[in-house]
Amino acid sequence: MAGLDRARTLTEKNAVRYAVLGSGSSANAYVFSCRGRSVIVDNGFSVREALARMDRAGISPDSVDGLFLTHTHGDHMKGAGALCRRLKIPMFTASGLTLPDSVGKLPGLYTMQPGKEHSFSWCSCLPFSTFHDVDRPVAYSFSIQGERFTVLTDTGELSDEMFHLVSTSRVLFLEANYDPEMLSSGPYPASLKRRIASKWGHLSNQQAVDFLSEISENRRKPDRVFMCHLSHNNNTPEKVRESIASSRAADMDCRVLDRGELCTGDFVPGLKMTISL
């Protein structure tokens, strides 16, 4: 019983709650919370849908301190400005990014230099550059309770910086956007197929799995990986699972999230464990 009581106490006081409100081709949003405070990464949902999903994930709107925008594609940005206004929170973006007029007036706007850690009262955030066909795209790695949580999507290539951040992360959210055969034989025009498969597009299942396979040989690696941002037309969860199962990453704790799937979990630093629902 003493062990259970200790686990309960650590969960209540120190647990980092993470939530994927949804990911995929249509809308993306992630939340990280600890000690009654939260941050949101992107919001491609309507305000009503985002708040409903936050409620299902056990995230209070009053806890949110800010929204961190990765880039200006609609599936990440469509509802970002409106949510900031509803929650009266600032938006954080990469330095030099010009937001489109559709974002609207914001309660506050702050910029961050990629590659530089930015400290807040209860967490720190490290934006890092990605390879995507849009102005100044970034991904984010958060340090909370001394542990790192990283969201890495919307990149056509992987860098040494990404490898280092992922290797030192406890929980990773990694894009597995498309299956090359499905993309090649699918309905998209040739120009769009080339864009998706290019250095400035998205990660294929094989790219993501090869990256994890390399990470898996490290002494330090994520306790849990969520494969996300699956294309509606060019991928399936089964394809991603097959790629993982036939790779050196098969022994890693990987969960594949379907398009639009809501997922929550808690990481307990003192116990070095994750509990996901």
UniProtKB/TrEMBL annotation:
Q: Which InterPro entries match?
A: Metallo-B-lactamas, RibonucZ/Hydroxyglut_hydro, WalJ/YycJ-like
The record's annotation in Pfam families points to:
Lactamase_B_2
Q: Which Gene3D superfamilies match?
A: Ribonuclease Z/Hydroxyacylglutathione hydrolase-like (3.60.15.10)
Superkingdom to which the source organism belongs: Bacteria
The UniProt record lists the Metallo-beta-lactamase domain at: 37-218
Output this protein's name.
Metallo-beta-lactamase domain-containing protein
Q: Which organism is it from?
A: Marispirochaeta aestuarii
